[in-house]
Amino acid sequence: MNRLIECVPNFSEGRNMDVINQITDVIRQAKGVKLLDVDPGEATNRTVVTFVGSPEDVVETAFHAVKRAGELIDMRQHHGAHPRMGATDVCPLIPIAGITLEECAELARKLAERIANEAGIPCYCYEAAAFTPERRNLAVCRKGEYEALAEKLVSKDGAPDFGARPIDEQVARTGCTAVGARDFLIATNFNLNTTSTRRANAIAFDVREKGRPVRDGNPITGTPKKDENGNVIMKPGTLKGTKAIGWYIDEYKIAQVSMNITDINTTPLHVAFDEVSRCAQNRGIRVTGTEIVGLLPKRCLIEAGKYFLEKQHRSTGIPEGDIIEIAIHSLGLDDLKPFDPKEKVIEYMIQDDSASKLVDLTVTGFAEETSRESPAPGGGTISAYMGALGAALGTMVANLSSHKPGWDDRWQEFSIWADKGQAISKELLHLVDEDTEAFNRIMAAFGMPKKTDEDKAARSAAIQDATLYAAQVPLRTMKESMKVFELCRAMVMEGNPNSVSDAGVGVLAARAAVLGAGMNVKINAGSLKDRAVADALIAEANMLIAKANAEEADITAIVETKL
């Protein structure tokens, strides 16, 4: 797996697009990284930028972007609604794939040291990169914001981790930067049908983990209670792993609860939405929608979509895109402006759209591509696709059954089957392209040089490895397609009787998939020099073919009795 990290620097400029473009051009022109999102905010006077790449390339790019922001932004002139202390206010590194949070923390510390030494910008280390427990909290590092830096820079407890010195002309201009490492954070704003910042703040205090001070007398104006150590006693909010404040956004003429969800495993987005909605309703206010700042992981929308479907007693075994649409409308993500998942979901932003896939073709295009004189896509690919269609038919019957009038008490039973069907179909669609890739590996191996004995030995070994893989892929197709029989049998026996023929066709498609993939196992195994391995592959394929024939005969006989 490739090592991949995300960096989300927040620059203290959200109004001057010339300055914003000069900073983001540093990222656009960098090698080895991909700029995913630039989200300027006029009211906050802050731009959230997201880019990804290999750890080494991301760290290098982050340094130059922070340095450039320090040259362009004068913090002495900065004013905005969001807390800030530097031209680059925060610069977190986030593990995405093949790297741990601890490794990101070490990279963040080295980056902070370099920014301080080479760019002259003092840096605090926060979250997982913090050197002390207190500084894990960004609010501690940023206490007093930019206006408090002159005092903090020379204080024992407030001095930055790197680059501490009395304030000078450069620091007055650049301020300080917090460099950290953290897990994925969702920055979201919940829109309210009120203009009251006070009411928005009250809702934020209701839900945020920190909560609100406990007071003597009047709960709003009373004196905060303190413990024996002099610390203010807090009444915790209802949502763990969240930070929130209320503010008024002149651009939209509404108040919002602005929230950072720092632990999406403990508090998923949909849980935060429902809880903010509940607390708002208790105060006579309604949440009208949700605004996502920056990007979010796809699973957040999938979890939300399934959550709202389950509340409606609807099947969750529907296509991914449909689930995301449910999430968008349920959360009100398009309340203030259109929400395009391709521009807001990190997995969609990272995926390589230039890589052509068979599964992305139209039905006509797929048939035409198969008909051409090139040997791939061939029988193995078509077998995987037939298996996917069989699973899709079984899933369709499950979804129809889950919403059948009079069967409302059985929605969950069929939803579980539909989820299984979607998983089978997804894997088989993956195998559609995997089978063609297996053939391409064989052709690449045959194209290797064979001038020397070493060349010939390497070429022969590569051909055998590719051939083994080409036999293993259709065997995976066979095994996955076998799962379709269980799904379709259940739908024939228990599903909507008006769709029994559809489940029957799914069975026929599954049998064709197993037998067709079996032929590809055998033809590729026949070219293996290791006959023990080849014989084992063929024996397993024959066993699956026999089972598929038996399943198809049994289930279609039941279908005939119900027609």
Structural description of this entry:
The chain has helices at residues 17-28, 55-72, 101-119, 138-141, 149-152, 169-174, 197-207, 269-282, 298-311, 320-331, 341-344, 346-350, 363-371, 379-402, 411-446, 453-494, 500-525, 531-562; strands at 4-7, 10-11, 33-41, 46-53, 88-97, 123-127, 177-181, 186-192, 212-213, 234-235, 242-249, 254-261, 287-293. It is of the alpha+beta class. α16 (453-494) packs antiparallel against α17 (500-525).
How many DSSP H or I helices? 18
Tell the overall outline.
globular
Kindly name the structural category: alpha+beta
Q: Main beta sheet: strand number and arrangement? A: 7 strands, mixed
What's the rounded overall pLDDT mean? 94
**End-to-end span in angstroms?**
50 Å
Strands, count: 13
Features:
14% strand; 4-stranded antiparallel β-sheet; 563 residues; globular; 7-stranded mixed β-sheet; alpha+beta
In short:
The protein is of the alpha+beta class and about 575 residues long. It contains 18 helices and 13 strands. Strands 1, 2, 3, 4, 5, 6 and 7 form a seven-stranded mixed beta sheet that branches.
Please outline the helices and strands.
Layout lengths: L3 E4 L2 E2 L5 H12 L4 E9 L4 E8 L1 H18 L15 E10 L3 H19 L3 E5 L10 H4 L7 H4 L16 H6 L2 E5 L4 E7 L4 H11 L4 E2 L20 E2 L6 E8 L4 E8 L7 H14 L4 E7 L4 H14 L8 H12 L9 H4 L1 H5 L12 H9 L7 H24 L8 H36 L6 H42 L5 H26 L5 H32 L1
Parallel strand pairs: 5-7, 6-7
Antiparallel strand pairs: 1-4, 1-5, 2-4, 2-5, 3-4, 8-12, 8-13, 9-10, 11-12
